[in-house]
Each structure stands twice: as structure tokens, then as C-alpha cells.
Amino acid sequence: MQLKTLAVSLFSASCVGAQSLTSVLQGNSDLSTLTSTLQKFPSLVQTLGGAKNITILAPSNEAFNALFATPAGQAAQSDVGLLQAVLEYHVINGSYPASSIPSTGAFVPTLLTNSSYTNVTGGQVVEGISSNGNVTFFSGNKATSNVTQANVKFDGGVIHVINAVLTIPANITSTAKADGLTSLASALTETNLLNTVNALPDITVFAPNNLAFAAINSTIAKLSSSQLSSILEYHVINGTVAYSTTLKNGETVPTLNGATVKITVQGGTVQVNQATVTIADVLVANGVVHVINGVLQPNSSSSSNGSSPGSPSSPAPGSDASTHHAATAAVVGACALLMAFFM
């Protein structure tokens, strides 16, 4: 769902005569750490100072203190490139007051375009969701940042103070490992698809969870590497980052192996063939991952949801069993960048 453009327009008009970004930040004692961190990057400060129609998600002092108290945060402080990427990830293209964030969620691009950290066309995104008057932003590995002070105006847009520093989405490998999708990670490694999946720009991965993978484990063991690769590729959409808000009921989407999957959206539930999405919109460095409860079968519009190998519904070589492996492997990759940020 798109942000409410009318609200944005009205809000932008109300910003006329607002203070400069520097003045606003210096005038808010709870943003002193953000201010001092930004001062390490004069060119970024200059860019933001002259920008129009942007939204800044500003971590509070407490948020920065929590990050910098960790080994990962301490490492970020000594890595100039990473620290600048973190700051850029907190700047959204467009002025979005809290009232324009929908309850169904919206995925908005940020200034983070550095290819060392993202491979999403137009800039890595954050997800914003409104619930009962409260706004939450989700970043890498579904990390949450709640807005504690909304709609602080400045002459270039709006600032929302948040209670946690956003997490830069990691690659497929790291994300899969962080989310416990170890079977997928193993499959990607076994088929030498790991580097390929991590490097592809703008992808969507349907990642079977470990239970789905375990259900067809004996079948997987009988597959050749090329058969397993084909199944894994059936879980990847190349060239399209399909967030849950963009999936349409009844649409068919081509996958990396050439076959298509069918999307069903009913009552808030999303299915890919017959597998159900159990965790949606896990942001990764090069797109998005949706965790599913079954292994997709490239030769039919069905999936394996835990039936035992050898039963009529269990996948045969080249079927959903292998596909399930592919999805799992793809999720694994997404965590690598996240782990790099926090370790």
C-alpha cells in the first residue's frame, strides 16, 4: 500500500518556515549523539541540509548508547563506511508524517544505495506500519524501532525520533542463519548457489522453514546437485522485490528456474502454490524473503507440507523437495550482512 499522498502534500505545505535541520537537531537534547555522529560526515550533513521532502528516522541518545555498548556497535564506530551507511539508512526519500503511514504497511526507499551494503534498485527500504496511533519501523531481520516523538518539522521535511537504531539488512546467507533456516543454508552451500543468490539484485525468496525441509529430507538425499539447484531456483524470483503489499491474488510469477508460482491472497493470508507464508517481509541486502511452511514443486502448483517421503503427496526428485531446499538456502544468505553489522 502506498503512503497517503494527500497527507504528505498537506504536511509539506505546513513545513514552510520551519527551522534548518542543524538547528532542530541541536535544539533537541535527546538527539545529541546523532548530531555528533553526523558531524563526522560533513558532506552528508551538507546533503541533508540542502535536501527537500525527506524523512529522518532519528535514533535517540538511548538508542545509540544501546548499540555502541555492543561489540557490533563498537566495530561500527571504527568503520567509517559502515557508520555512514547506517546514517544513510535512516533517511527516507519523501516527507512522511506519522498520519501517512498505513496500518497495512508501506515500504519506502532510503538514501542507502552503497553497493557494499545493498543491491536494491532505488535504495534499501524500511517498512513502516501504523497501529492504534503508534508507528513502528522494521529493518533488517525484522528489527523494530518505535517512534517515540513524531512529526518534528524542519525546512527539508520531517523527523521521527525512534527508540532503536535501524539494522541494515544482511545478505541471504546471514539472514537464513540468523533466522534458524539452517537447512536452506546447507542446500545453497551444497549446490554452490550461495554466491549467486547473494549477488543477484532485486530478488524475492520464498524460503521453506526447517520443518518443511525435514519432511522431504530423504528425498533430497537422492537428488543430484543439478536437480537440487533447479528446485532451489524455483524459490527465487529474479528482478522483482515482491513485498507482501505488492503481491496480488491470482497472479503467476516466473522464477529463476523458468517455471512459475501462483500467488493467492485471502483474508490476510498469502500462499505460494499451496505453501503458506508464515513470516513475511524479511528484508535482505538484495531484496526480500518470505518464509513458507512447505517446499514448492516446480512440476505442479502444489507444495510439500510435511508429508513423508514416498507418500502420494511427497516430492520426487526435481519436485518441491528440492525447491524447498532452494528457499531455505536463500534465507540463510540474508543474515550475513546483518551479522557483519552486529559483530
Broad shape: elongated
Average pLDDT for all residues: 84
- Helical fraction equals 25-40%
Q: Report the biggest beta sheet as strand number plus sense, adding barrel if it closes.
A: 7 strands, mixed
Which stretches of 5+ consecutive residues score pLDDT under 50?
1-16, 306-343
Q: Based on helices, strands and strand pairing, what is the structural class? A: alpha+beta
Structural write-up:
The structure is a single chain. The longest helix has 14 residues, at 320-333. This protein is of the alpha+beta class and 343 residues long. Residues 1-16 and 306-343 have low confidence and may be disordered. The chain has helices spanning 5-14, 21-26, 32-38, 42-50, 61-68, 71-78, 80-88, 172-178, 182-190, 194-199, 210-215, 217-220, 225-233, 320-333, 335-342, and strands at residues 54-59, 91-93, 106-109, 125-131, 134-138, 144-154, 157-162, 203-208, 236-238, 252-254, 260-266, 269-272, 275-284, 287-292, 295-296, 303-304. Strands 2-1-7-6-5-4-3 form a 7-stranded mixed sheet. The protein contains 15 helices and 16 strands.
